[in-house]
C-alpha cells in the first residue's frame, strides 16, 4: 500500500505520536509503544460495518470488523498508545499496512482514563462508506450470521468480536451495539429474535 498523504490529515507533528485503537489494536497492538491508557472519544460510535477480506474474512466471504461513524451523543472506548519519536515512521508504515483494507488516518481527541484525566490528540484509522470493503448497516441477525461464518488469516470473525468485548470489559468501556451482537452470538443458532 502506498503511504497515505500524512500532510492531508490534520495530525500534530509537534508532539508525540499517540494512536487510538478501538478494535483489535486494544488487545494486540503489535507495535512498540511506551505508554498505554484506556480512553474514549466523543461524537463517534463503533459499528461493525466494515468488511474484512484480509484478516477476519476472505474476498468471497468477508467478515465484519469495527469502524467508527459520527454520532453526536455517542462515545467510543478504546486504548491510546504513545509511540517514541524514533519509532514513529516504522509504526506508521506497519499500521498503514495492517489497516490497508479501506481504513484512513484521522485525528481525534482522546479522553484518557486514570488518576489524572487528560485529553490527547491521537491518530485513529476509520473506514468510511466510500471504500470498496465497506458493508454498511444491516439487520443485527444478518450481521451475526455473517460473523459466525467468516474466517480469515487472522482467525474467526467471532473470535474478534468476543476478544473485543472482553478487552472493553477489562477497561470498563461500554458499547451497547457490541453487547447486543455478543448476546446474539452466544444464543443457539436456531434461536432468532422476532
Kindly describe this structure.
The structure is a single chain. The protein has a single domain (about 15-185), classed as Roll (Hypothetical upf0131 protein ytfp), CATH 3.10.490. By secondary structure, it is of the alpha+beta class. The strands form two sheets. Strands 1-3-2-4-5 form a five-stranded antiparallel β-sheet. Strands 6-7 form a two-stranded antiparallel sheet. Residues about 1-10 have low confidence and may be disordered. It contains four helices and seven strands, in the order βββαββαββαα. Helix 2 (about 140-150) crosses helix 4 (about 175-185). The relative contact order is 0.22. It is globular and about 50 Å long.
Strand line-up of the largest beta sheet: 1-3-2-4-5
Instruction: Please give the count of helices.
Output: 4
**Helix-strand sequence:** EEEHEEHEEHH
Count of structural domains: 1
Highlighted features:
Hypothetical upf0131 protein ytfp, 194 residues, alpha+beta, 5-stranded antiparallel beta sheet, disordered N terminus, globular
How do the strands and helices of this protein lay out in sequence?
Blueprint: E1 17-21, E2 35-52, E3 63-83, H1 88-98, E4 103-112, E5 118-127, H2 140-149, E6 151-152, E7 155-156, H3 157-171, H4 176-185
Antiparallel strand pairs: 1-3, 2-3, 2-4, 4-5, 6-7
Helix pairs in contact: 2-4, 3-4
